[in-house]
Amino acid sequence: MAAKYQAPRGTRDILPEEVGLWRFLEETARSVFSRAGYGEIRVPIFEDTDLFVRSTGADTDIVEKEMYTFAREDGASITLRPEGTPSVARAYIEHNLYKQIPFRKFFYLGPMFRYERPQAGRARQFHQAGIEAFGSDSPLLDVETIDLAAQYFDAIGLTGYEVRINSIGCSGCRAEFRKLLRDRLASRRSELCENCNRRFDRNVFRILDCKEERCRGIILTLPLVTDHLCAACAEHWREVLAGLKALGRSYVHDVHLVRGLDYYTRTVYEFVHPGLGARSAVCGGGRYDDLIGQLGGPQVGAVGFAIGFEPTIAALGERARISASKRFDTLTTPTNVGGPVAAEPISVYLVAAGDEVRPALLQMAQELRLAGITADLDFEGRSLKAQMRSANRMKARYALIVGEDELAKGTVTVRDMGTSKQEEVARDGLVERLRTDAEVPPGSSNRRGQQPARPR
Ligand code: HAM
């Protein structure tokens, strides 16, 4: 007999036998994101509706059709969050988090709500793990976020995903490209689907990712946005792709990827999995340089992504799901709490002595993070002195200083932030070396009694 009450359509219970898998997915996110210097933020489940209208965008499917919106007794309108980005941006501005240090990194986990048609991996109450970094235009930051999503999927054992990436330019190049699209499409409107006809006036960019057969044929004849970027956006795009290559992350340039949220500028990306059918994204993200300013905050660049747990679980497949649950058991045995990290957490701040070495620094950060070491670096192009101040402020155990000299020699200058002692260490074996040193309490004299290398 069917139960009298059932969970509402598009929602489901996570039963005790499934919780191991969920906690594994959550703890792995915490561990991967915090190793890269992202701090957890918890924002409300509901917000003033206007926040989503202004950020996610009035003309998007989410705001037009998918929000759970309620009238409050006093007449104000509130909405269950359909995504996390607007709330994190609001919190950054509301708490003046940019006043002292404009550059901040956040991560969050939790349920989101969209009135969508439930299907494989898609729900009305679904769960995301996301990151947002505010305060930098650097293409290396875009690369860092993509690398972290890939680190996450690798850590949970998801195979077969593909990274699709595109650039949609800044508001300047987009305005020109919009005009170009309208010119090209004006005479063919009758051939477009109903949705695209609406989009023609309101959001012509969205036509590019229409999945309707009749529109696809026309879309293939349209110019590509990456051929119409302004000089600064073209350079940014080139550096993002070069950075991904340097980190060994493969990608596909999806010339029609525009994403369904309004705030994006420049880089947009999705991680897709072939096991999922039409709605194949397990992660979506990109850069949004105008949003913080539009919400009343400083004009700072921003980039982030969100991973969907339901699509990820669907993509993992039965065997991988079981092995992920088992890995959660290992993660929580008393000797192993906190996951596969060194006995004592080591934190490292990488300092660039010269701008040329910054891409190489991100590679080193990737290597350290993958080895379980918390590593962060500067994305604002600050001076060596200012970077050392950041290392201090973040209470890093070590600053790793790298200039062109060191890069050429394959070495790194390691500064113990407790004792201020410095020594030059070969880059090969650096991880082992930091781990061994970490067995000595921070600030005590060097275990090997070595003399510090030349002070800087
Ligand atoms: P989004 O593409 O709307 O972006 O969602 C990100 C991911 O959440 C999707 O790739 C998918 O895996 C999952 N997702 C979305 N809707 C559903 C659903 N109804 N059921 C299950 N999973 C779903 C955002 O949410 C942006 N806030 C991402 C971002 C952060 N961009 C910059 N920062």
Describe the structure.
There is one protein chain. By secondary structure, the chain is α+β, with helices and mostly antiparallel strands. It folds into 2 domains: 16-170 and 230-329, BirA Bifunctional Protein, domain 2 (2-Layer Sandwich); 344-438, Rossmann fold (3-Layer(aba) Sandwich). 38% of the residues lie in helices and 19% in strands. The protein contains 15 helices and 16 strands. The chain has helices spanning 16-34, 49-57, 61-66, 85-94, 139-156, 171-185, 194-202, 213-219, 231-246, 291-294, 309-331, 358-370, 384-393, 404-409, 430-437; strands at 39-40, 46-48, 69-71, 77-80, 104-113, 125-134, 162-167, 252-253, 267-272, 281-287, 302-308, 347-353, 374-377, 398-403, 411-416, 422-426. It has an 8-stranded mixed sheet, with helices on both faces. Strands 13-12-14-15-16 form a 5-stranded mixed sheet, with helices on both faces. It is globular, with a radius of gyration of 23 Å. The chain starts with 15 loop residues before the first helix and ends in a 19-residue tail after the last helix. Residues 335-343 and 445-456 have low confidence and may be disordered. The protein binds histidyl-adenosine monophosphate (HAM). The site of histidyl-adenosine monophosphate has 25 residues, from β6, β10, β11 and α11.
